[in-house]
Amino acid sequence: MSLTNDSPEVAAAAAKTASFTLASLPASARNEALEAIHAALTASKDEILAANARDLELARKAAADGKLSQALVSRLDLGKKGKWEDMLQGILDVRDLEDPVGKVSLRTKLDDNLNLERVSCPIGVLLIIFEARPEVIANIASLAIKSGNAAILKGGKESTESFIAISQVISSALSTTQVPNSAIQLVTTRDVILQLLSQDRSIDLVIPRGSNELVRYIKENTKIPVLGHADGLCSIYLTASADKDKAAVAIVDSKTSYPAACNSVETLLVQDKALSTIFPGVAAALALKGVTLRLDAASKAALSSTTLPDGTVLDATPEDYDTEHLSLTLAVKTVSSVEEAILHINTHGSHHTDSIFTSDGAEAEHFMNQVDSAGVYWNASTRLADGMRYGFGTEVGISTNKIHSRGPVGLDGLTIYKYKIRGDYQPTAQYGEGEGKRPWKHERLAF
Amino acid sequence: MSLTNDSPEVAAAAAKTASFTLASLPASARNEALEAIHAALTASKDEILAANARDLELARKAAADGKLSQALVSRLDLGKKGKWEDMLQGILDVRDLEDPVGKVSLRTKLDDNLNLERVSCPIGVLLIIFEARPEVIANIASLAIKSGNAAILKGGKESTESFIAISQVISSALSTTQVPNSAIQLVTTRDVILQLLSQDRSIDLVIPRGSNELVRYIKENTKIPVLGHADGLCSIYLTASADKDKAAVAIVDSKTSYPAACNSVETLLVQDKALSTIFPGVAAALALKGVTLRLDAASKAALSSTTLPDGTVLDATPEDYDTEHLSLTLAVKTVSSVEEAILHINTHGSHHTDSIFTSDGAEAEHFMNQVDSAGVYWNASTRLADGMRYGFGTEVGISTNKIHSRGPVGLDGLTIYKYKIRGDYQPTAQYGEGEGKRPWKHERLAF
To answer: Which ranges carry the Aldehyde dehydrogenase domain (chains A, B) (predicted)?
Structure first.
């Protein structure tokens, strides 16, 4: 890793050159680099935490002056219980994942001594833009090296001292390995994000790690593909055939287990027939957890005989169904059918994760086929949308894109493939149908 | 299919709505739609060819006035021997391909009664912009319907009469099927390309079918992902260990079997040691086929005692190594090593298809790993880069993108996946490590 003061253009070109070397390193060399980083960070804990303390001091002053939120200060703190250990363990966890590079997904005999092979390979150069959490730099450097991608990292300015300390440690650790120095670069110069976003000749993929605003800004300002999602407006459609008690548990989980997460439910669509049967119990369970309900007229009327804490019941505005509240607020809307629910979700949702609660399997399959989202669930909490929970071992991000990777993205989202052909100089003009032409064999081979 | 005069925004929104219905049709319904199109076009041959004749008449006048190339006039002609039959057969060929929708590529048991599944599904709405060939409309409509994608088609104005005739036939054919009318729309209003390219809320992927200029223009003017390639600057690296006679045959094939194709070789890199041994025979074979060589000093000197037709040998300029000649012109450059060849290709190439000719397997593997192209070949003609030749049965295009699809793209390049979870309302908060927590099972299931 190098701490670069080069221009974004020079940094990106250097990363591109380094990416070719990194892409051809064997898994053992990439894993050794992760071990070297782990060892070096372990040995440098004191100096990194000292640098982090300087960031924290500035941030606390800014917070005291009302210029920074307390939440951000808290996210900055590398010394918080377990954070340092988690960061280090994360590096070893990434090392232990299956190598995503060099996987063969197709092998075809085109003719004798003429074989086609599709092999996974790194994408090239990643640009990773993140905000305050200093531990992200170790996580991201690990993911990039493991997947054979070069990376340019640009972190939030509040963590500058921590980033510099960590990157110097990583840099000297990598110098003992086969990973080229320019493969992982930290850009610390200010106000370079727009310039980085214009390096579409050298940078192949942008990965934002931060707020919706950051992601939206990046998507608006680059031609480079962006892996991620700006919004997480997830819905649950509660039908009259759902299990009353279990539905309440799952909706409470979807809303309250981490309200600020992108996979928390924001809109509850209630079938009209469920208003008087299942919905009051669900509302009561949510209210118990402090959730405020923003209701349409029908769902509000359905709660008229349910005793709820003051302030639980509010009238919904049209904007509520397009808002990611990220808090203990849930918009509720009455619909008459699964078709209406699907239409609402495809129109107002963010194509992230949506669930139907029903005992009717055919209705559930119809919902899952028609809802245009990365995750479509049947009787399941929207909070399942997560790379660790899916069993991917890590998560690069959650994508609402319609191409390449969708939903929680694991390491293989950082790869693409190339086609290799090994032949014996056969001229293509000899092949085809008809007299004197040689037919293609096109035999699928095992891999 | 509808022939729309709606605004691009309205057309795109209607296509999006139709895409949800189309996406959930079974393969049988999509195949029946293809058969209906085939039957209707067969029955309407005369009226379509009459419309095509009107386009041709205008085009011939324009060509006589020097406003249109003769090559374009020739491409317009649907009555040319075999073209009509090929167009119709192409529809049936697409019908017979394996269904790319609904393929399961991952199945994991997260817990008892909680199963994750990754299933392929259509991308959504395609925008296909093409130039003069009227038969493309049938091909593209078939590919879209087969893959369950809605499509907006915008063709070149020279084929307007043909497009309208074909689309009216397809439209009435589809009205007897389950494919919604707005799923395939032909836009005939003029000058709407830029407006279509700005519909990134409704359109998910742009597929240009036409000249480099068209592709480059589209890539420069949209935030929607574009599947395709602007340039095809393919190279062959000829080493001293290559088979002398076979190499000449394969290089002649790469250059001359279809010089205007994107997969034809444009630059020959010659190892210095091969200049006096293999290269003269290669040059003579190319010259026999009418190829003009643009040579650097060393390669030119190597031909001093080879008798070649007048005009075969020219001096290369630096621009020649960045030019896709698309004609019987080949740039030749001398390099001293595979490293130099790799660097040249990664710097000057278009990441399309590049080949090394060598008897050294280790050198070939190194080349294939380090060259950053969709196709990397060993002793094989660059002209192999083609969906039919790869055995995909069809070709949507050839992509030089670094994400989603790379190289010749078959039907599966028009799909993405969604994650389905079928559960029993389990709250996620109960899972994790530590006391009182329930561990994830994460068992891979067969599919």
So the answer is: 9-285
